[in-house]
């Protein structure tokens, strides 16, 4: 971020009055341009004991499997976002249930939300960002080819909770240490 | 948003290829500048049967009471954000418990998260954005002077759940209709 989106003048990094960290401040109009984390809204589409995964046709993680999800848009709710992303990536219609898991990823300034969902019909297909969309039984899940740690973690919780059919909220922080080791720190 | 934050050239509103809505696209470098919802991280600081509220010293809702909270920052987790905001607004140290309520506010592109928390000591005081910080018993809550509907809703849930000491996750969408009427649509 180098130029003011409002007036086009140069931005400087400085700590504004009454603040405690550097922000992009316009040298001319003085407006402070904050940068904040984004929300990724996802669904866990279920059909009996199977779950629907999408094989990514885009980077990052081209060719790996993920749950349908993407950036929450302005002017929508989290539920609308999860439903929209499921339709876009898997051409699938779902009934959204409760929030099932969420993760903070401070190294990339994201919060991921996963909603349990039920497929309303089996008329799904690959959307623009998917190579293939497929239902998997537990023993078929391609654990070594899952695109993102939050997706693996959500699937692990799901198959632990499924026998009892009790689905409490799970949450964790996904942290990368300086030596690039990853840890998933559950909240409970 | 009128100028490209990357190169300073003019932006145009157009629908990029493979997209379905207008974005700010740079006429010169071609970069697409997405705009997405922000996360507000809050705590519900409890001490025995009392809760800690802050009287706002800033707009909007100057002089009204709220739970401590604010914009989640880059490079932090949701828990760190809720803890930080509680320290900044109420100079209060808390132990954060589970996520207790969350709300989508699509008219202002925000998602509000509220964490139940326990005050670690009674050494709290007004931070820069508060005129006053005070513990309230249930019968003392100034219901007519609460700053935000998500805060009122969270406090209502809390005092319903408190007798049983079972605190399930509550969630809702706060929607304004065209005639500016507000509805709080619970998810469950």
Structure in a nutshell:
2 copies of one chain form a homodimer. Chain A is mainly beta.
List keywords for this structure.
Nucleoside Triphosphate Pyrophosphohydrolase; Ubiquitin Ligase Nedd4, Chain: W; 188 residues; 39% strand; 3-stranded antiparallel sheet; 9-stranded mixed sheet; homodimer; 2 domains
Instruction: Tell me the CATH architecture of the largest domain in chain A.
Output: Alpha-Beta Complex
**Total count of domains of chain A:** 2
Assign a percent range to the helix content of chain A.
Answer: 10-25%
Radius of gyration of chain A: 19 Å
The helix/strand order of chain A is EEEEEEEHEEEHEE
The number of distinct helices of chain A, counting runs of at least 4 residues, comes to 2
CATH superfamily of the largest domain in chain A: Nucleoside Triphosphate Pyrophosphohydrolase
């Amino acid at each position: 971020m180098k130029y003011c989106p409002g007036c086009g003048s140069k931005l400087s990094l400085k700590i504004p009055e009454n603040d405690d960290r550097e922000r992009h401040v316009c040298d001319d109009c003085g407006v402070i341009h904050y940068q904040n984390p984004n929300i990724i809204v996802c669904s866990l589409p279920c059909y009996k004991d199977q779950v629907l995964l999408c094989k990514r046709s885009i980077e990052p993680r081209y060719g790996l499997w993920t749950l349908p999800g993407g950036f929450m848009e302005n002017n929508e709710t989290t539920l609308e976002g999860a439903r929209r992303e499921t339709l876009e990536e898997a051409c699938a219609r779902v009934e959204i249930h409760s929030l099932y898991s969420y993760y903070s990823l401070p190294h990339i300034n994201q919060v991921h939300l996963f909603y349990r969902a039920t497929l309303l019909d089996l008329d799904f297909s690959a959307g623009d960002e998917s190579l293939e969309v497929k239902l998997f039984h537990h023993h078929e899940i391609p654990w070594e080819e899952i695109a993102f740690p939050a997706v693996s973690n959500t699937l692990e919780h799901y198959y632990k909770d499924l026998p009892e059919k009790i689905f409490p909220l799970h949450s964790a922080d996904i942290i990368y240490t300086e030596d690039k080791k990853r840890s998933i720190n559950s909240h409970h």
